[in-house]
User: What shape does this take?
Amino acid sequence: MKPRLLDLYSGAGGSARGYQAAGFHVTGVDNVAQPRYVGDAFIQADALEYLWAHGKEFDVIHASPPCQ
Assistant: This one.
C-alpha cells in the first residue's frame, strides 16, 4: 500500500506529480474546484478545516498556501 500524502492548497496539483513519482497516493484539497487536478484524488474544501478533521489519516502533509 502506498503512503498517503495530503496536498493542501493544491491548486491543479503542480507538486502532486513529483509526489506520485516518489511513490505516494496524493489527495489534493483546495477551496476552488480543480477539475484537472493531476493527483490521485481531489476534495473541494477549506484546507485547514479538512486538515483538522482528516489530517491523522495521512502519512505526510504538504501545504503551500497562496501568497497574496
Q: What stands out?
A: Helices lie at 16-21, 47-54.
